Amino acid sequence: xxxxxxxxxxxxxxxxxxxxVEDFRKEYMVSENAKERVTKPSIPFYGKEILExxxxxxxxxxxxxxSGAKATGKNILAENLAWMFGRPSYNIxxxxxxxxxxxxxTDTFRNNEVQLRKGSVYxxxxxxxxxxxxxxxxxxxxxxxxxxxxxxxxRMIDVPGYERIGLHPAARFIGTMNYGYxxxxxxxxxxxxxxxxIDMPALSEENLVRIIRHDYPDISQEALQAFAGLFLxxxxxxxxxxxxxxxxxxxxILSALGTVRIGLKPWQAxxxxxxxxxxxxxxxxxxxxMVMTRIPEEWxxxxxxx
Length: 306
Ligand SMILES: Nc1ncnc2c1ncn2[C@@H]1O[C@H](COP(=O)(O)OP(=O)(O)OP(=O)(O)O)[C@@H](O)[C@H]1O
Ligand SMILES: [Mg+2]
Hints:
306 residues; five-stranded parallel β-sheet
């Protein structure tokens, strides 16, 4: 089996799906100038069911919307999908400055003539790339109208002043969005209707352990249990609405471990990575207690990295 697909086999992803991904890889080549965009993600995505849903959706030609809380692996999943399907990826971040011309292209004056400087959606369409629409719910109307046309069954892009272009058969789009926090926007129904949607689940203990081990292979068993346990405690308390989701942050846990490796005391590291993310004073007290029960104040680096 190809190296890119081994992590699927390791997680016992349905073999039939893996074979179809292999076929897809064989069917569509990547052009020379897009090769550098086929990039290996920093970590495999862990989560068998989610992988199966995502793979099946893309195989049948759908676009995929990944919704969920922060640090639930939305971007990591999108990058892994592009990698396993062997496609160049194009990251397109939506913010107040993203308009239709930044997606499709703009006219520029070059060699004494007006030429189209192709935007990332254009290039993705041409190369059969996987376009990752990051924070797609932040798209302004002007950008959203490009998405409406690009993402529906016609698979066409209107380039004002030029010919309309069709999407390469291997091109797919994967949107990511955060929701449910203050400041996050909803996505309008017509746009949602152009995607199959995956709601990113809470992390299981098994996958959490895999992620921590991947980043810190030399972590001690005791510390692994302490830090994973702390994250799971926080996740559960937030699910039960006893705390908000502010301190439930896998990035915080992983970075905290990084500072411990450098030599910081584990309880200090946990303050930065976990406790201080809860800005509400009452909530912070609850979180601080949870940290204390898992990560003894007297621990040093040696308890964590033997
Ligand atoms: N299922 C998973 N498999 C592997 N890594 C994961 C997984 N879930 C989270 N991670 C870890 O969490 C980090 C954050 O993941 P990612 O950036 O994909 O999150 P996100 O959902 O896009 O978050 P945000 O909404 O804040 O942008 C990754 O670098 C990775 O270490
Ligand atoms: Mg993200």
